[in-house]
Design brief:
Layout lengths: L8 E2 L2 H15 L17 E7 L2 E6 L4 H12 L5 E5 L6 E5 L11 E3 L1
Parallel strand pairs: 1-2
Antiparallel strand pairs: 2-3, 3-6, 4-5, 5-6
Length: about 110
């Protein structure tokens, strides 16, 4: 029996949130993170979405509350994201404007 491990690619962040995050929140009321764990690193990715003509991957250990912040900003007509290079400058990460630089709990990387 084969398991389909292909992660969906959503056309934008709002579609990703409404079609992937909202149903997950409904099914897992007590979940803090997308992997439904309380702590620890995750090397898996929950889904992908497009932003500024690039594909971005959302790590499974991303906190749902941070996705909520970004979603509310988009719904209010604001772009909440800042694109920054990772430490080795070999990739990029999305950060939420106005959020702490360290311990962001928002793990979205260029795919």
């Amino acid at each position: 029996m084969s398991v389909n491990n292909i992660k969906p690619v959503y056309p934008d962040f709002i579609t990703f949130y409404e079609e992937a995050v909202k149903p997950f929140k409904t099914a897992n009321h007590a979940a803090i993170r997308l992997d439904n764990k309380l702590k620890g690193n995750s090397k898996s990715f929950f889904a992908y979405f497009m932003y500024q003509d690039k594909k971005w991957k959302v790590a499974s250990d991303t906190h749902i509350s941070k996705l909520d912040v970004a979603y509310e900003a988009f719904k209010n007509g604001d772009d909440p994201f800042v694109v920054k290079p990772v430490r080795d400058h070999k990739a990029e990460t999305l950060n939420i404007k106005g959020q702490p630089i360290r311990d962001t709990r928002f793990y979205v990387y260029s795919a």
